[in-house]
Specification:
The chain has 151 residues and is mostly helical. Helices cover 62% and strands 0% of the residues. The two termini are 26 Å apart.
Length: 151
């Protein structure tokens, strides 16, 4: 299934996850808690913040934001949020999905988060890593050894 690698835009994968969680919500919440919605709002803000900061870092370094063409990266971004996670934008998406599931009380929504992380790892992150290894060589290898893929 290598033909799927870097073919489905990650924002589309994210939106499909949101849609699936909302579809699951049609059957009503699975759990309720006084704390789940405030925590979910905080996590949602964290996920959005991660995405915004990471995108700004890419733009400030004038490297490509196009996840469909990782070989076009002009700079190895390894500072800021990229010093904590090699994929803060994808991590931000996963945190937002988790927050939506938590907010709605959808336990099955957490499976959607897992599927999102699996899909991105298999069909987006690993191909990106291969391209960055070719493009940046030892510098990328050192970065990958130092910083976790997700967190």
């Amino acid at each position: 299934m290598t033909w799927l690698e870097t073919r489905v835009p990650p924002p589309l994968v994210f939106l499909l996850g949101v849609g699936l969680i909302l579809l699951l919500d049609q059957w009503g919440p699975v759990f309720q808690s006084d704390f789940s919605q405030p925590i979910a709002l905080g996590l949602g803000a964290l996920g959005i913040g991660l995405d915004i900061v990471a995108i700004r870092q890419f733009r400030s370094l004038a490297t490509t934001l196009n996840p469909m063409a990782p070989a076009q990266a002009s700079v190895l971004v390894d500072g800021g949020v990229f010093a904590v996670s090699r994929n803060p934008m994808y991590l931000g998406q996963a945190v937002i999905l988790f927050a939506i599931a938590l907010f709605l009380g959808q336990a099955l929504g957490f499976l959607v988060v897992g599927a999102h992380v699996w899909w991105l790892t298999r069909f987006q992150v690993r191909p990106e890593e291969r391209a960055l290894q070719v493009r940046f060589g030892a510098a990328y290898a050192a970065y990958a050894a130092r910083v976790p893929r997700w967190i």
